[in-house]
Amino acid sequence: MSLRFNAISNISKENDGLASKPSTKITGIFGESVFTLKTAREFLSDEAYKSLITSIRGGKKIDRNVASQIANGIRAWAESKGVTHYTHWFQPLTGTTAEKHDSFFTLKSDGTAIEEFDGAALIQQEPDASSFPSGGLRATFEARGYTAWDPSSPAFIIETGDGRTLCIPTIFVSYTGESLDYKAPLLKALESLNKSAVEVCNYFDKNVTKVTATLGWEQEYFVIDEALANARPDLVQSGRTVFGAAPAKGQQLEDHYFGSIPERVYAFMRDYEAEAYKLGIPLRTRHNEVAPAQFECAPIFEEVNIAVDHNTLLMDVMSRVAKRHKLVVLLHEKPFAGINGSGKHNNWSMATDTGVNLLAPGKTPKTNLMFLTFFVNTIKAVHDYADILRAAIASAPNDHRLGANEAPPAIISVFVGQYLAKVLADVETRVGHKFDEQDEAILKLDLHRSIPELMLDNTDRNRTSPFAFTGNKFEFRAVGSSANCAISMTVLNTIVADTLRKFKIDVDTLIEKGDKKEIAIMHVIQKYIVESKKVLFEGDGYSDDWHHEAERRGLPNLKTTPVALDAMVTDKAKHLFETNNVYSHTELEARHEIELEKYIKKVQIEARIMGDLAINHILPAAIKYQNELLTNVNGLKAAGLPEVAYASQLSILKEVSEHIQIIHTKVHGMVEARKIVNNIENTRTKAIAYESQVKSAFFDEIRYHVDKLEGLVDDETWTLPKYREMLFLR
Ligand code: ADP
Ligand code: MG
Question: What is the pTM of this model?
Fold first, then answer.
């Protein structure tokens, strides 16, 4: 029996005994596996505790002596929870997380066995870094990379089976100090935002000393039966199905969205949620998504660095827990053709240490001027750096979404809703007009009075916009489901930091010329609205009209990753990231190279998988069926039956033979094309060639004929699980 039928017949059996553990109250387990400040208070001396707090708040560095005290406290806590090993946990540019476990166990010089975790081991480690991507930053003969403790993200304990490992969140840098991970640049971007935003806040409130960016991600994913997934080599190897005919029922009935959660998936959700709660991940919502077998979860928002760690951690936890339920989580952006793909909306805002959300319309004209300042600066940032924001979400799997009419398009635009659009238009139409103190444009800034409930209940929504204002935050929707949010968050926070920095210079210049502060601010806001209005779009982002309109407006629409990535290494980008102390030129070049290589490898793997499946699964099944038809036709002929008796069989035979022929020729052609493309030296040229000469030139066509065969060949003979099985059986 083929894996496919084996899997199908086992599905109902697998459902037995997989119920989740009984529910516990969330508050009872929340943060149980995290070295929280409360725990720190318990396990650390006053001196060590104070030092930890200062460094968490971005203050001075912890010295070695205190670090050892902290390390001892963390070990004592971890051991009380059965931990024997620790690891520096980091986020290398592979896109997954990395850990290398060391035990607390060590031998003293006289051979006595002890458990130890000293300050040096907490602060810094040197994993063998030669196999992590560096984009040429480290020559292999000097493959040294260091992980360094990030005290702003708390240590936590990962449970795998009966094993427990203490994880220390770290950044990963090269011997010469270049960042080799996602976290280091993110922390720099957040610091840059803090600096620029505090200065602008001080126009309105001198008490603000810190601004933190906040992130609430929404994670979409598919869940399917493990045995069915294992019978699909394409899913196993590339995370997506490269073949598969559309099922009779897809998502057209729209009966899955917000529907009742299937029991087996529900048990899985409750299990991974429990793990997430222990790790301090504040999950809040769970529901079915639009496509069959697609779901979503979202936490309460947190400070960006923590939120990013929590998202990467959760992706790990979900994949691990799914196995216990004999399920597989698919985080790929487009696991199935013809139905919706998965994204990861990044809800983003900024908050002051005085407790103000800078993107929430205020209650008084003064706080509204502050809101308008940050609101318009964000729009201006997205306008000025749309190309870099686009590059931040570019990846081989996300290309399947951004180009198609199901997710926000590759054109970056901003949706603000009709009320705020009107406010912006009001300010804008007064071009050349000098604002004065009695000006109603300033008085009218009492936004809260003119736009009350609607802002709060968020009915003014546009699901098709890649970057939408949703009442008290912006929602960056074009981020891919498998992405590390650090990439988009690094860019977003840097571009807003940079825009705010320039805003301050512009306002100060006007104040020096004699404008009163509020008037100067209004003038600069007006200027920014005029300069960035072409990025505002309230209509349907999926429509063809918008594509034409965007082109007319001169907005870029780069559909494929290899060219979208160019924006990372322009002079503009280099200047931006250098000014804000986020990436050096070399780091940018290295990242650009790594992203291109990732793209090449992903397309290459998919191409190989396609070839393998076509030759080893599809053609043999088709040929078997062809033989059956032949035997049948010959038998009928021999029995002396007239041609009408086997005319249908003959016509099927003809169709099957044609598809076989084309598939074989095309697969062969694709292999040849790969050989040529593989010889290209330049990484960018090679990536572009992989896109056009391999992917575009062959993928869709091969798939078309394979999917046609799936519709013709005897179901019994077909070895790969079909869409209707993967999406609906559980
Ligand atoms: P939805 O967009 O599904 O209607 P919500 O608007 O309630 O749901 O929130 C979506 C996400 O936005 C949640 O993860 C939430 O935590 C996050 N969010 C809410 N406020 C903020 C904020 N100020 N900063 C960042 N994220 C936020
Ligand atoms: Mg949302």
Answer: 0.94
